[in-house]
Amino acid sequence: MADISSPTTKVVDAPRRQRGQIMLFVTTQPMGSAGLIVIMIMMIAGIFAESVAPHDPVTMNYMAMLAPPTLEHPFGTDAYGRDVLSRIIYGARTALVIGLVSSFLGSSVGALIGVASAYFGGKTDMAIQRLIDILLSFPIIILAMVMVAILGRNLWLGIDINLVLAIAIPIIPKVARVTRSAALSIRELPYIDAARTAGFSHARIVLRHMLPNVMAPYLILLTAFIAQAILLEASLSFLGLGVTEPTPAWGLMLSGNNADFYREAPWLVLFPGLAISLAVFAFNLFGDSLRDFLDPKFKA
After folding, report:
1. Residue closest to 229 by CA, chosen among 176, 172, 285
2. What is the model's pTM?
3. Domain of life, per the record (predicted)?
4. Cα separations (Å) of 115 from 70, 121, 179, 192, 267?
5. What's the rounded Cα separation, in Å, for the pair 26 and 40?
6. CA–CA separation, 179 vs 187, rounded Å?
7. SS (H, E, C) 68-124
8. φ, ψ (nearest 5 deg) of residue 147
9. 11: how many CB neighbours lie within 10 A of its CB?
10. Cα separation of 53 and 77, whole Å?
11. What DSSP string runs through 192-258?
């Protein structure tokens, strides 16, 4: 019997299938769901920081310097009398913006390079892979530090664009290597040969026919590298190469005067450190669960 379902019915069924996939993820991946809840709380706190934070994060109060946790300042104050809780809330915005943008940029460029390398093969593939081997030989923090030193600072809308690039560049070779492996098997499929026979351009084959088929590993890597990008941003800020004062940033809160007063005021390093650990842990939980959910090799 012929299928008489209308296009409208299929469009209506699409959101239902998406809701079903979301519910399946929640029920089969409880740890990943817990990580996603933490991520959502961080995003809400960062987006609505002006409404959520109890104090201005940059306003100094020399009458309340190094005040211990109280009802007015639940996480205490720093050496300048600034509210630590407010700076952590605003720091979530800094961490998420830099982490999301740099991870998306690095993962997208890496996926494109990996798929193109697999598609062209031969000398092109060999040249790209040797360049990736060189980049992978450097520890990611060292490569990010070198990029920051080379690029310098370039603020745009309050975001250091060069810092984002410095974090994104070390991500590119890692994503390129993984997506290339996935694209090698796709290159041999019949529909790719059919696209070549039909006279489609190389760009169209790579972008329209191969790249969408590596979305599962791409999404997994994108999520995983957000955690690494947040940790990199915190590390660079701690070393004085990332976000600068008075911008609230978790890594910056662990350096400078705060590090000097950690004995007298342990809350100065305790709460920012917990924020970094919780954010990285949440994204790692969500990324691992997303891998288990999307990759058929990990399904029972």
Report:
1. 172
2. 0.82
3. Bacteria
4. 54, 10, 6, 13, 47
5. 14
6. 12
7. CCCCCCCCCECCCCCEHHHHHHHHHHHHHHHHHHHHHHHHHHHHHHHHHHHHHCHHH
8. -65, -40
9. 9
10. 14
11. HHHHHHTT--HHHIIIIIIGGGGHHHHHHHHHHHHHHHHHHHHHHHHTTSS--TTS--HHHHTSTHH
Of 236, 292, 297, nearest in space to 30 by CA = 292
Encoded tokens for 71? 């009802």
In angstroms, how far is CA 70 from the centroid of its own chain? 34
Per-residue pLDDT of the chain (300 residues), as tens digits, is 445 444 444 444 666 777 777 788 888 888 989 999 999 999 999 999 999 999 999 888 888 888 899 999 999 998 888 999 999 999 998 899 889 999 999 999 999 999 999 988 889 999 999 999 998 888 888 888 888 888 777 666 556 788 888 889 889 999 999 999 888 888 878 888 788 888 888 888 888 888 888 888 888 889 889 998 998 888 888 888 878 778 888 888 888 666 677 778 888 889 999 999 999 999 999 988 888 887 655 454
How far is it, in rounded angstroms, from Cα 80 to Cα 55?
14
Bridge partners, residue 83, by sequence: 77
Closest CA to 101 of 222, 20, 281: 222
Measuring CA to CA, which residue among 95, 12, 1, 87 is closest to residue 52? 87
Quick count: other Cβ atoms within 10 Å of Cβ 133? 11
Phi, psi angle pair for 223, to nearest 5°: -65, -45
What three-state secondary structure class fits 60? coil
Predicted confidence at residue 11, as pLDDT, reads 47
Q: Establish whether the linkage from the previous residue to 246 is cis, with ω within 30° of 0.
A: yes
